[in-house]
Amino acid sequence: MSLWWVLEGRAIQDIWIRPRRPAPSTMYGTTLRVFDPGIGGWHIIWSDPLNQDYSRQIGRAEGKDIVQMGADSHGLQARWRFTEITADSFHWIGEERRAESDPWRVTYEHFARRAGF
Questions:
Q1: What CA–CA distance (Å, rounded) separates 42 from 40?
Q2: 14 contacts 1 by C-beta, under 8 angstroms
Q3: I need a surface site. Which of 2, 3, 22, 92 has the fewest CB within 10 A?
Q4: Can you tell me the distance from the alpha carbon of 20 to that of 28, in angstroms, rounded to the nearest whole number?
Q5: What is the dihedral of CA 30, 60, 70, 49, to 10 degrees?
Q6: Which secondary-structure segment (H or E) carries 96?
Q7: Chain centroid to CA 50: how far?
Q8: In what order do the strands lie in the sheet with 41-48?
């Protein structure tokens, strides 16, 4: 994962490529996060053109975690939780469900650690 401030410091963009190159990619996407002081949160747009997977979410701090809620391109409710956040690492849990009454189901999980450039 790579992360940059973009749009003259008004947004954060990250790039995800999995698995790490030179292996063929199974996921190749970018996230754009723009803070909105009116809602006290972030507008988030995820795009993975390799898999035609797109998502819009709203992200906010919840205690020490960051939680992003929205819908994915398959019409499922999506929740991305970033926990155990430090200056050099975080734990990311991706969950989905069909309806409010359904339990959240973990669909992926990442343990990220900052690497040297």
A1: 7
A2: yes
A3: 22
A4: 10
A5: 0
A6: strand 89-97
A7: 16
A8: 2-6, 11-18, 27-36, 41-48, 53-62, 65-72, 77-83, 89-97, 105-113
Q: Which residue has the tokens 């963009």?
A: 13
59, 91, 104, 116 from 80: Cα distances, Å? 9, 10, 11, 25
Residue indicated by tokens 């809602």: 39
Q: Could you tell me the two tokens for 84?
A: 């155990």
Q: What is the pLDDT of residue 70?
A: 96
Written as six digits, the tokens of 52 are 């035609």
DSSP per position, 57-76: EEEEEETTEEEEEEEETTS-
Q: Give bridge partners of residue 101 from the DSSP assignment.
A: none
